[in-house]
Design goal:
- This protein has 14 helices and 19 strands.
- Strands 12-11-8-13-16-17-18-19 form an eight-stranded mixed beta sheet, with helices on both faces.
- The relative contact order is 0.09.
- It is globular, with a radius of gyration of 24 Å.
- Helices cover 35% and strands 25% of the residues.
- The structure holds ligand PMT.
Length: 402
């Protein structure tokens, strides 16, 4: 059966030359059985008339917050939608959405919905590569919005470069995937669960200005926390870095392994703990109280082991399902198997942090889930949010079996 059959999709069209391609996307969605409601910005109507969309879609095109009897059309559209597809998305629409602005019907509907959103940027290369646009796109991605990256090709005015709207096939594939993920998340299989997640790299002071640290950005741990909250869990995130986060998640900022241990242990018991943080294994034995002066002499810093939080939780009995990560660069699976046993976890998520586009700071990751039951699941290179989904699917299976 078509993934679009019977699904209600708001096709949000903003004003760029690529608006004419949204007509084809609209037609294909309707052909695939979707109920399509077009929403056009004023600028979109300068490129394609609303009659074209009204004729092809399942309902007439909507143009304004104030055009008919419904006093809250954005809320009605947002609530009824299974998916919102912004195609094409201009730099203005992307920026407004990232900033939470609701300046027209399209913007207000995006803010008023809990449905999955797919954004398909299209603009000139200079605009697409502008740091402000890239920051906004990253922010949307971190919030769980699917961004279908534009392609290289012919642009308005005869220019050629990156920024051309993705092909209809790529847009429809992303929309189908977002619908499937939305349906999965809407099962809200973690309602009533208390979930603790750790994220980011700890910083162990050498002196007041220097530390022993690592390259963890916190992206993977944040993705787990956001996914758990989307599934209905009450989530606490103990992190060393601040990133965008839904308000429902309690954020506890810490710096060192000892602080992370205290913040985590203080919040037990928990139904699920996911230790995605890169916790330092060693810390300076005696951090200097004042900044260490340069003398020109070689220096040795003495290190002592930090508390092993995961291992402590593994033998404490206050955690329903305990998930650790393993960051490896050699003998990846063998080392991770050893950690699974040594730390008493129910699941270890192993990433080869030397692999391209995986591990520290990337937006993507590639992992193997090693369960204490002996099960192994490979998650090929994908977004950190998808990795989070796979991890929590495994948690659900573990909980169902115990
Ligand atoms: O943050 P990102 O930039 O998105 O990168 C993600 C990541 C690479 C940090 C993440 O995917 C990851 O692998 N996290 C675990 C990093 C790590 O510390 O791995 P480890 O193999 O050294 O530790 C194994 C497990 O023990 C981890 O769950 C760790 O949180 C935990 N641990 C480690 C040491 C310690 N003293 N206490 C612990 O609890």
């Amino acid at each position: 059966m078509s993934p679009f059959a019977g699904r209600r999709i708001v096709l949000a069209v903003s004003g760029g030359i690529a608006a004419y391609k949204a007509v084809e996307v609209c037609r294909r969605l309707v052909d695939a059985g979707a109920h399509v409601v077009p929403v056009l910005t004023e600028a979109a109507r300068r490129f394609v008339g609303e009659i074209t969309f009204s004729a092809l879609a399942s309902e007439r095109a909507r143009l304004s917050l104030f055009e008919d009897d419904d006093p809250i059309p954005h809320v009605t559209l947002g609530r009824q939608a299974d998916l919102i597809l912004v195609c094409p998305a201009t730099a203005r629409v992307i920026g407004s959405y990232a900033a939470g602005l609701s300046e027209d019907l399209l913007g207000a509907t995006l803010i008023a919905t809990r449905a999955p959103v797919v954004v398909c940027p299209a603009m000139h290369t200079e605009m697409w590569e502008h740091p402000a646009v890239q920051d906004n796109v990253r922010l949307l991605d971190e919030r769980g919005v699917t961004v279908v990256a534009p392609e290289e090709g012919r642009l308005a005015g005869g220019d050629v470069g990156a920024g051309r709207l993705a092909a209809p096939e790529s847009i429809l594939a992303a929309a189908a995937e977002a619908l499937a993920a939305g349906a999965q998340a809407s099962t809200r299989d973690m309602v009533g669960l208390r979930v603790l997640v750790t994220a980011g790299g700890t910083r162990e002071p050498i002196d007041p200005v220097r530390f022993v640290g690592n390259r963890s950005s916190g992206k993977q741990g944040y993705a787990v926390a956001i996914e758990a909250a989307a599934r209905g869990a009450k989530v606490t995130l103990v992190a060393t870095v601040r990133r965008p986060l839904p308000e429902s998640i309690e954020l506890v900022l810490v710096e060192t392994a000892e602080e992370m241990r205290a913040a985590t242990v203080d919040r037990l018991p928990a139904d699920v703990v996911v230790m995605a943080a890169a916790v330092a294994d060693y810390r300076p034995t005696a951090p200097a109280l004042d900044k260490i002066k340069k003398t020109g002499e070689a220096r040795t810093i003495s290190l002592e082991p930090t508390p092993d939080i995961l291992a402590e939780l593994g033998c404490g009995g206050e955690v329903g399902t305990l998930v650790g990560f393993a960051a490896e660069t050699s003998d990846v699976l063998a080392n991770a198997e050893a950690k699974l046993r040594a730390k008493g976890a129910d699941l270890i998520v192993v990433n080869d942090v030397s692999a391209p586009s995986a591990g520290f700071d990337h937006d993507t990751n590639e992992v193997v889930l090693l369960a204490a039951t002996g099960d192994r699941t490979t998650v090929p290179l994908t977004s950190k949010r998808d990795v989070a989904r796979a991890v929590l699917d495994h948690v659900a299976t573990h909980r169902a079996a115990h």
